[in-house]
Amino acid sequence: MKWLGLIATAFTGILLLSATPYFPSFGDPNSPANAGVNGGVSVSQYYITETYTDTKVPNIVTAVLADYRGYDTMFETVVIFAAGVAIFAILRSFGGTTIPSHPTAIDTSVEGDHQRIIIGMTCKLIIPVIQLFALYVVAHGHHSPGGGFQGGVILGASFILMALAKELDTALARFSEKRYLALACVGIFIYSGFGLLCVALERNFLDYGILHRLMPATDEIMARSHSMLGVEVGVAFTVTAIMFAIYANLSSKGRLEQGF
Amino acid sequence: MSEQLPAILLLSPLFGALITGLVGMTDHRRCFPILATALTVSLFCAISLLAQVVKSGPIDYFVGGWDPQRVPLGIGIQLRIDGINALLLVVITTVALLTSIYSIRRAGEENTEKTPQFYMLSQMLCVGLLGITVTADAFNLFVLVEVSSLTSYALVAMGSKPRGTMAAFNYIIMGTIGASFYLLGVGYLYMKTGMLNMAAIHQILSDPNVGHSPTVYVAFILILVGVWTKMAFFPLYGWLPNAYSYCPSTTSCLLAPLMTKVSVYVMIRVMLSVFGSEWIFQSLGWSHTVVWLACIAIVAGSVLALAQVELKKMLCYLIVAEVGYMVGGAWLANHWGMVGAIYHILSDAFMTLCLFIAANIFIKNRRAERIDQLEGLFKKMPITTTGFVIGALAMIGVPPTAGFFSKWYLLRGGIESGQWGYVVALLISSLVNAILFFRIFEVAYFGKNPVESHDAHHDHEDETQPSSVGDSTLFSGEGRPTTVIPLLITAAIIVLLGVFNGPIVEIIQQALDGMPVVGAAIR
Q1: Which of A95, A177, B216, B387 is a Cys-bridge partner for B487, taking CB atoms 3.0 to 4.6 Å apart?
Q2: DSSP letters along A135-200, please?
């Protein structure tokens, strides 16, 4: 069986490599992806030249992600949401037999006390900064590198840090299970809600332009930019919640109790 | 509003899942009405889309309003609904709705505290499958494959059987490999064409300079292998039997009819819309090889099914054989083969659903996991067994069920293209199916003693409570109405699909006019 695996891997490798000589050269400005085929449409050229006039968003990546291919991104968020629900569905165990209490890993000596104090104080100082930075990354996603996924991960990481440095309960007290599950749903609600609003205003799904009717003092193009921020916030909600949900369930074997 | 139907079709189950997450956690009884409403809206959308397509041809929907009148094709994401996938949409939503009726009580019993999660996952699975079916963008297809796969892994793993968890793990590994192959293939294609939109790729590939590049051939092989893994085509079927037979019964009713069929549709979509049949059958010229592979799949699936003692395992191996039918039909390189393959996707979804619901009722009420435990079922539960018989007859291919007509079209395609191996494999498989099911009929009809005792080793695997068996024997041994009614509806659909095969085939042919199947080069 091992040999079979080796042969299959070798075969796949050869197959993948066999096509490489016919690839466009690395960084070739005339490659199909950069310049189109036979003078046809080049998607990337279009994005580079037209994004700003279409959407008033200087960060092309965000514009492609949240507007041109916003439909993909919505489902990527659904994938993350599904992963969170899946973890919950598989791991979460309610009550039942109590696990034998683990010997606490907390070092009760004076030295251990010192370490706890150092870690505790550091986290106290650093967590607000992390969270503030996360919000900045989300809010500036359409102007500079960043966006909902990145900001959400940072925000989720701050809660994970809290759970790691103190106890899972400390983090759960601030971000309870009910709350994070609801937040995950609300995140996708925001995203798909933006799409549905467009449908309600008789445009295609996720055609943000029409939302200028609901936003004061914006035209169609600025409405796209603002809506992108909106959906990024939705993505950030879901990612934050699911990050923490996955950590909480994995670290406590689905019991959400202390004792790792 | 009618032009927004493609979006509403997908959004309805998505919002259903979200609302279930928000309000279903506290009260599990709210979950089912939400699911039923969401799927009914989807079904309505699917049927109106079908009517619209039949009346006025394929529908193009440009998400985000990036339609070719404003920007070049391929800037945004396109959804395209033609006759074939409109039919498939109706099938997916119908199967999901029937399964949801089946799940009214069963989901609560099988998942107790996690019922809302079960309903959320199954609605997201529907979103994924519907999205795969309507999309006209090669990368978007991958994203939706991810949605449907992730949810299905979780649905399989949710059961209480330890073997189910192991099967889910295998399924994750194989499924991820399949999806990665598909993604790699799309990456290779993008490198050569710079496009992700299916129609745009197709147009660029028609230029022989690009179309005959080895990169494109490798891309096609990668996509094909990826999709084959997803659909459990014969040598790559390893994950399927355990995943579908050890998962919770509601999950098996949802996954078995839909997942493999949608993957087969993906293959057909890639063949016709992305590469185009001219490229596939004339430039590539592999149709003979693939049809022979399909023959091996059909025969191997049938023989493996013959070797099974457990009813659900046997049905799983039959799925493997059926996948062989569809792959073979699609690769016969002629019109009737393709029509047969597409028609078989539709009919096989209902046949599988029918057999799985019946098998699950047998397991639940009579604890009959093995075929020899089905003794005396005709007497004990005549209605359920009748449903099972209709599904089985369709699987064998007895007129006027849908199974007969799909085999008829496939055989016609096989004969017209002179692929006699395929014709023989189909006939052998029908014969094996007949042996398999008549063996069951014999046990169920002539077997003397209805099963009272069961083997000890089945005890601890069984998730049902002994008391619930006692409850259901109150109404003369039949299953609950909520499980028997969807079974009978499915059985009726199988017959109706067969009787009205003419109009359906006409819709398929009308859709194929747009992308005709060009015959293989004469060799």
Answers
A1: B387
A2: HHHHHTTTTSS--HHHHHHHHHHHHHHHHHHS-HHHHHHHS-HHHHHHHHHHHHHHHHHHHHHHHH
ipTM: 0.91
Q: Which of A32, A46, A209 sits opposite B65 (nearest CB)?
A: A209
Tell me the per-residue pLDDT of A176-215, one tens digit each, with 9 for 90 and over. Answer: 888 999 999 999 999 999 999 999 988 889 888 888 888 8
> Distance, in angstroms, between B44 CA and closest chain A CA?
18
| Residue A29, domain member (yes or no) | no
Residue A9, in any domain of the structure: no
Q: Contact at 8 Å (CB) between B303 and B432?
A: yes
Q: Which of B191, B273, B210 is nearest to A38 (CA)?
A: B210
Pick B221's closest partner by Cβ from A15, A37, A76. A15
Q: What is the model's pLDDT at position B7?
A: 92
Rounded to two decimals, what is the model's pTM?
A: 0.92
Chain B residue nearest residue A44, CA to CA? B194
SS3 for B159? Answer: coil
Find which of B9, B18, B26, B28 to mutate to test the A interface (most A CBs within 10 Å of its CB).
B18
Please indicate if any CB of chain B lies within 8 Å of the CB of A26.
Answer: no
From the DSSP assignment, how many helices (H) and strands (E) are in chain A? 10, 0
Interface probe with B: pick from A69, A199, A256, most Cβ of B within 10 Å: A69
B518 touches chain A (CB under 8 A): no
Q: Please say if the pLDDT value at position A100 is more than 60.
A: no
Task: Give the residue from B263, B227, B9 showing the smallest Cα distance to B123.
Answer: B9
Domain that holds residue A251: 59-92+111-260
Average pLDDT, chain A: 87
In chain B, what are the domain boundaries? 318-523
Q: Is the CB of A33 less than 8 angstroms away from the CB of B22? A: no
For residue A41 the two structure tokens come to 């449409």
What pLDDT is recorded for position B465? Answer: 42
Nearest residue to B125 via CA among A81, A237, A256, A29: A81
| Cβ contact B39:B97 at 8 Å | yes
The pLDDT, as a whole number, for residue A98 is 53
Sign of CA pseudo-dihedral A43, A47, A49, A54: positive
In a domain, A101, yes or no: no
Cβ neighbours of B223 in A, within 8 Å: none
Q: Compare CB distances from A22 to B14, B193, B214 and report the shortest one's residue.
A: B214
Handedness of CA B495, B500, B505, B507 (dihedral sign): negative
- Residues in a beta bridge with B405: none
Split into its structural domains, chain A has a count of 1
Chain A residues 204-233 with a CB less than 8 Å from chain B: 204-209
In a domain, A8, yes or no: no
Q: What would the mean pLDDT of A61-65 be, rounded to a whole number?
A: 90
Q: What is the pLDDT of residue B469?
A: 45
Do the chains contact at A67 and B158, CB–CB below 8 Å? no
